[in-house]
Structure formats: C-alpha cells, structure tokens
Write a structure and sequence with these properties.
Layout lengths: L9 H6 L8 H7 L1 H31 L3 H33 L2 H21 L3 H15 L2 H9 L5 H32 L7 H16 L1
Helix pairs in contact: 2-3, 2-8, 3-5, 3-6, 3-8, 3-9, 4-6, 5-6, 5-7, 5-9
Length: about 210
Amino acid sequence: LGLVRLVSFDDWATEVPPSNEGGALSAVLKSDLLRLIGIMVGITAVVAAIADVQFNQMADRIFHTKDDKTSFFGSFFAYLNIFAFLFQLVVTPRILRSLGVGAALIFLPFGMAAGSIGILVLPGLLGGIAVKVGDVGFRHSIHKSATEILYLPIPSALKKRTKVFLDTTVENLATGLGAVFILILTGLGVSYANLSFLSLALISMWVFLLV
C-alpha cells in the first residue's frame, strides 16, 4: 500500500464491473480504468514495434555479417538487461514510494520519445541504440511494476480475464498493426528514421492519456 499512497482508486473502483458476467472485451469497454490501460498497452506495442525495426535496420547498416550481428546483439542486450535489472532493483521502488504511480508511468514514454528523437539526430547506430535503450530499459522494469499497480482496484476474478486479454490479445494485435504501419509507410518511401515522427505522435497521445 505504501507504493500507491499517492494514487486514489476510489473513483476508478466504482467504474469496474462488479460481476464476472460478460466477456473480457465487454468488461474493458465498461471501465474507464481498463479502457485506458488497454489504449496504453496498444500504443506501447506499436511504438515498440517501430523502435525494434529501426534498431535492427540501423544494425544491418553497420554489421554486414551474421557473426558480427550476433556478437553485437549478445553484448548489447546483456548490458541492457543488466541496466534494466539494476534500475528495477534500486530506482523503481524509490520512484513509486516518493513520486507515485503516475510519475513511474511517465518514464517509458519519455524514454521512447528521447530514443525516437535520437534516431532523427544521432548518426548511424547511436540512434538505434538510443531508441532501444528507451524501450527495453524501462518497459520491463519501472513501467511493468507501475502498470501492475493499476490493476489493484479490479476484483481478482475479473482481473484474471481482462489482464490476460490486454497483455496478449491487445498487445499482439497492436504489434501487428504497428508492422502494417511500417510496411505501408516504408512502401510509400518514408525512411526508417522518419518513422520516429509516427512514434512521437503516438507518444504525445500516450502522455495525454496518462495525464
């Protein structure tokens, strides 16, 4: 409870359907809290798909052999996961206790926005590294913890159904939608770097919803 002392769930809780009747989609649509979480999950997945493609494309331009790519990816993700682990262990609890869930949820969109801008202004692989650090560094650490807290006011039986729906169905559909956006835009001649403008537009909507 100390982690969520800056968040009032009274208003949210009254909007969560009290029974288990109906499907997960119906439950999500009836609750402002679940609906906003679903939109956040969807936007996160689309922006992450764009970041992943941008990072891989930048790496392809620098490393021309399979062995070079394997060596780079292995080292990069090892260090990145160590960073995410230490951030989760040391920084996340302090942010949640001192600033609350709202501040914790801002880290990922701001990190991904910084990475998207990095793609536009930093040359070569540096931009790709920036966007991937903004994604992986915060998505599976502070953002995951803060998102889990948002589910606290939801009855456990309803939470089991809706959380699986949001974490799998919605996220996978949004990732596929992100891939479609990428195919369409690159097919129209938009460069991989300029996909950051789409990411920044989505992140702006994301931050607005969080506020």
